[in-house]
Each structure stands twice: as C-alpha cells, then as structure tokens.
Amino acid sequence: MNHKYKISDCNIITLSPIHNRSGNIAIIENRIHIPFDVKRVYWLYDVPAGAERGGHAHRQLEQLIVAVSGSFDVRICDGRDKKTETLRQPFQAFHIKQGIWRDIVNFSSGSVCLVLASEKYFEADYIRDYDDFLEYRGITVR
Ligand code: TYD
C-alpha cells in the first residue's frame, strides 16, 4: 500500500519535561505521548562534520527523531513539498510518518540523534533511491 502522508502530517511533538534544580527529565511512553508503539531505539553519535544521514524513506515504519544533545537539521519531502526542521531541544521529537523522504544534515559537533522507530530493522522497508521514491509516491519521473 502506498502511503500518502504529506509533510504537513509530520510535526514536532513537544513533551512536558519534569524540571528539577538538579536537571530535567523528558519522557516518552507508548501511546501516551506518541501515537505508536516503539519497537526499536537507536542513536547516531560521532557524526563527522559535514556528514549527511538519512537519504531514504520507509514504507511501513514511522519514527520520532530527538536531538538529545546538540543540533541538526531534518529535511523531509513527500515528493511534492519539502520542509526543514532544526532540532536542538531535548524535549522535542519530530514525528516522521510513513512514506516520507528524509535527510539529516548540519550535525553540530558532539550531537546525538535519537530515533524511536515503530518497527524492527527491515532493509526491505527502505526506499533508498529517490526516483524509486517518486514512483512509490505516484509521481511520474520524466
Ligand atoms: P541507515 O538507516 O541507512 O542510517 P541513517 O538513516 O542513519 O543514515 O542505516 C545505516 C546502516 O546501518 C545500513 O547498512 C543499515 C544498518 N542498520 C542496521 O543494521 N540496523 C538498524 O537498526 C539501523 C538503523 C541501521
């Protein structure tokens, strides 16, 4: 099934951290703070200056991306429209729906990109070629 989510379906979720003089806690629980169950968590770290991550879409997987440390830009595209969110707040999560292309760029030094995914790792779920992505989205490649 072709998912037809648009970039307007991908939004920042702002959590309500617990503040304390000795530090803060940001919390995500399945189905309470987010609309899916997390099956896998991974994080990107030691990303070299200038490196670009992502460069793909997922067929069935949706995910949240959190800048738990530092900052980076997440560029998303639904085949027609694009938008970029700069993530730099550990209490915000960017929700990327199924069938959306993403690139993650401009990592600050020492940044950590936490990903909460709705599915286990499954390479066949990836669309890694942009023309294949446009075809998946039903957009004719000329
Ligand atoms: P990829 O998801 O393409 O990384 P990013 O979107 O962060 O640039 O994954 C990079 C490589 O790591 C790819 O060969 C698949 C592998 N990988 C796993 O084996 N398991 C995982 O859970 C993830 C996220 C990646």
Question: What is this structure's SSE topology?
Answer:
Layout: E1 12-14, E2 18-20, E3 23-25, E4 40-44, E5 53-58, E6 63-69, E7 72-77, E8 82-87, E9 92-96, E10 101-105, E11 112-117, E12 126-127, H1 130-136
Antiparallel strand pairs: 1-9, 2-3, 4-11, 5-10, 5-12, 6-9, 6-11, 7-8, 7-10
Structure commentary:
The chain has 142 residues and is mainly β. The strands form three sheets. The chain has a five-stranded antiparallel sheet with strand order 1-9-6-11-4, with no helix packed on it. Strands 8-7-10-5-12 form a five-stranded antiparallel sheet. It has one helix and twelve strands, in the order E-E-E-E-E-E-E-E-E-E-E-E-H. The protein has one helix spanning 130-136, and strands at 12-14, 18-20, 23-25, 40-44, 53-58, 63-69, 72-77, 82-87, 92-96, 101-105, 112-117, 126-127. The mean pLDDT is 95. A hairpin with a 2-residue loop joins strand 2 (18-20) and strand 3 (23-25). Bound molecules: thymidine-5'-diphosphate (TYD).
Summary tags:
1 helix, Jelly Rolls, mainly beta, 5-stranded antiparallel beta sheet
Provide a quick synopsis of the model:
This protein is mainly β and 142 residues long.
Radius of gyration: 15 Å
CATH superfamily: Jelly Rolls
Fold-level CATH name = Jelly Rolls
- The count of DSSP E runs of length 2 or more, i.e. the number of strands, is 12
Bound molecules: thymidine-5'-diphosphate
Tell me, what's the shape?
A: globular
Please give the CATH class.
Answer: Mainly Beta
Query: What strand line-up does the widest sheet have?
Result: 1-9-6-11-4
Report, as a whole number of angstroms, the end-to-end distance. 23 Å
What's the SSE pattern? EEEEEEEEEEEEH
Strand content: 35-45%
Report the total helices: 1
The number of domains is: 1
Helix content: under 10%
